[in-house]
Amino acid sequence: MSVLQYMRPSTELVLERVFERFRYSPRRARRSPIETRTVLSVASFLLKNETRLSNPEIAKAISCTEDVVPTLLAHGARIIGTASEVQDLVIRIKTEIEAHQNTIAVELFLDGSIERPPTIPLTESSDCKAIISAVGTVLSAAPAQITGLSREMRYTDPRYIAMAIAKSLRPSRSVREIGRHFSGRDSHTVLRALQRVSDAVLKSSH
User: Fold this and answer.
1) Which candidate, 9, 27, 96, 137, has a CA 20 to 30 Å from the CA of 88?
2) 143 contacts: CB under 8 Å, gap ≥ 6
3) What is the pLDDT of residues 105-119, one digit of tens each?
4) Looking at the predicted structure, is the pLDDT value of residue 93 above 80?
């Protein structure tokens, strides 16, 4: 066995990692066909690329027929590729948020709105304003478009990402609080945003 082969994760380890990430159990009585396809697609992709299994070996590992493996591999590549783009985007946005937070804090300090130095954490409202501005800068969308009522994808995607980041940077922030900063959207809309973005990032963790 070569050093590279020795360093490769085992089939069992890859499957365990994927199932744990998705909180998925192959033995669960009720499970969504879409969820199953997503999990098996990601598992197939990782088995192919990390353990170098052949298609017949992948089929055996995930208990499916060999003819569906190419489809699962293609779907897995799309999931992981898209999610990786989201992760890169989030990193860029978080960097941009720091700049916007500093700018907003200085403005508030100079006009007398706050008496504390700009290094003190911002208020809930200013914090969300910085996040929305940062997302807009990175994704070329005006803050008013992100918080507005349009359902066009070019605005809903930045809106969902901004909501998810607002929650991730301050976990104690309630979905109702987040919704208030986006034209008073209800909790269900914010939860849907959190689910969509977290799923994308989660599916790329491998």
Assistant:
1) 9
2) 129, 132, 133, 136
3) 555 555 555 454 444
4) no
What is the per-residue DSSP string for 52-66? Answer: ---HHHHHHHHT--G
Give the containing element (helix H, strand E) for 138. Answer: helix 124-139
pLDDT band at 169 (very low <50, low <70, confident <90, very high): confident
b/e per residue, 159-169, with b = 16+ CB within 10 A?
bbbbbbbbbbe
Return the pLDDT at 126. Answer: 62
Task: Map residue 14 onto helix, strand or coil.
Answer: helix
Burial class of residue 158, CB neighbours in 10 A (0-12, 13-18, 19+): buried
- Determine the Cα–Cα distance for residues 67 and 72; give it in Å rounded to an integer: 10
Cα 154 from chain centre: 17
- Supply the mean pLDDT for the chain: 76
Who has greater pLDDT, 45 or 117?
45
CA 87 to chain centre: 6
Rounded Cα gap, residues 46 and 31, in angstroms: 22
First to last CA, the chain: 24
Residues in the chain: 206
Q: Which of 75-79, 191-195, 197-201 has the highest mean pLDDT?
A: 191-195
Residue reference for tokens 């890859």: 14
Of the candidates 128, 196, 205, 191, the one whose C-alpha atom is nearest the C-alpha of residue 157 is 196
Angle at 74 between CA 1 and CA 197, to 5 degrees: 105
